[in-house]
Each structure stands twice: as C-alpha cells, then as structure tokens.
C-alpha cells in the first residue's frame, strides 16, 4: 500500500492539497500529517475531510523544520505504518486526480524491474493555482545519474520511494533540504533506474512562501549546492564517468566562485583534485579563481 506523508507547517494552500487527496480516483492510500509545531492549526480544516480519505494527524510540540527540514521529513515518515511505498507531499502541492490510480496501474512493472523510485510528470502553479510552466515529462525508464545531468527541474513531492530504501539510507541533512531530495533520488535508486509515470501529474506550487519560490536564504542555498556536489565527488566519484566528473567539478567550482568568501570551499576543491591526481582540472580551477578575482578588483577600481 501507498503512504502519503505530509510534513505540515503552512496553512495557506493546505486545503487545495487535501482537496486533491479527497478526489483521488483510487483511494488505496493512507495519509500521515506531521504538524511541525505550526502556529496555524489545521484541526478545523481536517474535520472537513474525516470521511473523505484515510488519514492520521500528529502535532509535534517542537519545531524541527526550522533547523533541519530533512529530520522533519524523517520523523513524519516514522508516523507511517507497514506501507511499502511512500510519497512525501508538500503542504502546498496538488496531486492530479489519477496519481494514485496510475501508480497502482504501473506497480507490477515497477516491481518486476526492481525499481525503488517512481516519478510523476509535473507542472508548476502559482499562488492562485494557475499553470506557470509547461508540463515536465520524463523517459519511462531513466538512469538516475543520467537524470542528474539532464537539464530539468525536480521536487520531492513528485516521487514515490520504496520505504525500505528510505529507512535504510535516510536523507542527507543539507541546509533547507536544498538538494537533499536530488541526492535521495540518486541514493534510494542505488544510482540506478527511475520509473516515470507520465499519465498522471503533480502540480508544484511556486510562491513566495516556498523555499524554491523566494530569494531568501541564498547563502544557505549556495552552501547546500556546494555540499551536494562535494558529497558526490568525495564519496561517490566511482559511480560517474570521467566526463560526468568533469561536469560535477565544473558545477562545484561555479558554486565556490559565486561565494569566494568561503575559503574552506577552496581547500575542499583542492583536496578533491589532489586525491584524484587531477592536476589539469586543478590548474583550470585556479585560472578561473584568478580571473574572477581580477574582475572583482577591476570593479572596485571603477
């Protein structure tokens, strides 16, 4: 059976999320709502859905998402029972009415292929629920490493994960959960295949109340971006081709150049190069640093 986990904090769009669960054409799922000590109680709203779908609500007395979003996800997952698959649905995102039905329609093939990560098509919506992007479709079966290098978007809400993988591996605790979901896709799939269900869609809300929809915490986002690529290069480099490693190195270098105040980033990148005996890459990195410093100095003179 499928568990839908909702780490709850924001009330503003929560009713739309619940409405999308109530109208699912297949009701073979259970919802677990973990209230992260929100100042906006959803109790009155939840009364409206008591007989519309199966759910459990639990209020945590201590806010955790403010310091570690991934730990909030994990304690909400711990509320679930013996379900084999889980989705972690944002409290502002919306399921298309056939998402659960489409999941079960493909489940036999998913399990025969030994796949641990399922992905649905997505479309961005704004505060008013209006579409603000095209629909994002994916190859039916795609290697998760290939997905990392394919230019596209991603959100935690659009995935279903084999629960045993989630419990065994867990989420990496990057600041704001930024890139924690991407790494989860890679690790939960064992850096192997993802199964895409393109016949059902999840709407991802982009608003000034969401982490991805505002420009706050840019420093923390930069840090998480760096930490993500550093983890891949320092812990998982054997899973990538030489070409892919060069691309990862380019991305982590760019992350450092966006915030050169972090001198420890410079040393971490240097260590990666020396460990891999990649002096050519290191020379290119140093040249990029010098060019960037020169541009900055010229701007100061002006």
From TrEMBL:
<keyword id="KW-0808">Transferase</keyword>
<protein>
    <submittedName>
        <fullName>Glycosyl transferase family 2</fullName>
    </submittedName>
</protein>
<feature type="domain" description="Glycosyltransferase 2-like">
    <location>
        <begin position="4"/>
        <end position="134"/>
    </location>
</feature>
<dbReference type="InterPro" id="IPR029044">
    <property type="entry name" value="Nucleotide-diphossugar_trans"/>
</dbReference>
<dbReference type="GO" id="GO:0016758">
    <property type="term" value="F:hexosyltransferase activity"/>
</dbReference>
<dbReference type="Pfam" id="PF00535">
    <property type="entry name" value="Glycos_transf_2"/>
</dbReference>
<dbReference type="InterPro" id="IPR001173">
    <property type="entry name" value="Glyco_trans_2-like"/>
</dbReference>
